[in-house]
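Hi support team,

I submitted a single chain yesterday and got back a structure, but I'm not sure I'm reading the token output correctly. Could someone confirm the output below corresponds to the sequence I sent? I've pasted both exactly as they appear in my results page.

Thanks,
R.
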Amino acid sequence: MGKIYEQKIIRFDGGMANDIRTDDITKFAASKNFDALSFPSRLVPYRSYEAGNDTVARKMGNFLYASGKLFGLGEQTSPLRPQIFYKDTFTDGTWSTTANNVVLTTPPSFLYDTFVQYKGFIFGFILNTSIWKYDITGAAAMVTADGTVGSTITSTANGVVHSKDDILYMAFNNVIVSKNGAGGAWNVAALTLPTKYTITSLCEYGNYLAIACKDTDVLSQSSRVFLWDRDSSVATLAESIDWGLGTLQVLEELEGRLIGISLIKRETSGGLVFNSILSFKYYAGAQGAIEFARIDGSRDASISPLSSLGVQKQKANNRIYFAVVLTMNEGSGSKEGVWSVGRSGQDRPYAITVEHQSSDGTVPTAIDGFFLAGSYVFIAYSNTGSLSGNISKSNDAATFSNNSQYESLIFDGGDPSQTKKLIGVTVMTAPMPAAGSVALGYAIDSTIGTTTTFTNIFTNTTDNDISHSAINIESSGATLPEFKEVQFQIISTGGAVVTGLSFEYELVPKRIY
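Hi R., thanks for writing in. Yes, this is the structure output for that exact sequence:
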């Protein structure tokens, strides 16, 4: 008999690993629809999702919460006009309208990336030269030209109300506009950056307004962050930070650090970039922007769906949430939905995970918008390349019918040339709920990363169980496999909480020396 080894995983807060052969077993290849950070020794499933829009003609692409209501920026049809919807109950997919919530004329389209509340009004941009204004109460007519800028608006970023001066800042193209007070005049050129840059994201950073920019030359795929003290009379900015390769789409402060998320995007199968890369950096003063994590996308020539990183973001639960569709290099297919970056404690590194999916089994081409309202999550997604009206929301009932999925690292016992025999496997859980189910599967050697299907070892549905072990394939009695490399998948439904995974294997000498 060869030597027997045991591998045990009882902590899950390491986040998604770029190299899934790493020795850090707190990391994983993927985690979907689990909260892996609130409780480091548990994978806690999120509730199921249900239809969040009972009328798909409401094609909403951005959301905000104000005055006890969730507002959605969408459009109406026949004729096509921008329209604002709201909901103040979250138990279903019904949205409401107020008087004056639709543009009475037919202007060019609203741009969806700017949707910000300030002193009882919502503001954003129209795809020409205008800033629109909407009274949250609906008491006044929507104003389609509350301000007019001097150049054609082609791209926009989020808005920020800075806590130091209570002034609203919004961005279009390479320009920052500002408004002091609900009735104040717009400063339509509060700050103008060089024309080679397009502003993608704004955030508060101490006394500064941090401004993320991408290069207008798409092939350069480089980015920069400017720190502005908000004094429009000073032409020289406080800092100009080289953020390096990639299109910086998301910038936000977290725990006093400035964190940026960039995408080096593969545009086509014949492009200059062979695979998309998601890069995470933080600003470290004189050291500049330091990469602390990266996730490589697939090198498969089919590249379907195309990877995308949205500019919408939200800071909540001491995490930064952002929207990504990324076809992975290894593992079971694409990882799409609302991702997060955060950590379980001050002594832990930042971790990346896919927290919320648009819906079970759906692979959208883009996440159009999302919002976390308390425990509810709303995700607007599309499979057509334009707004579709599809919205998933968290179920108000405590149901867990959607799969929550964990994919382990690849384990090779330290030597992938050696053959091993899987002896037994165990999944540990909190006491299994009445409707709970935990399924354990495996992939080995050449099947790893080439299929979305794992071979099932067992499915445990026993009430109050806190662990389940197997020494064979329970459905058939077949022996567990020999392997050189092995990867495991756990699928939880019905609210089952995973607390650990362990397995034993025996070294089987089969090399010729």
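A quick pointer for reading it: The mean pLDDT is 90. Let us know if anything else looks off.

Best,
Support desk
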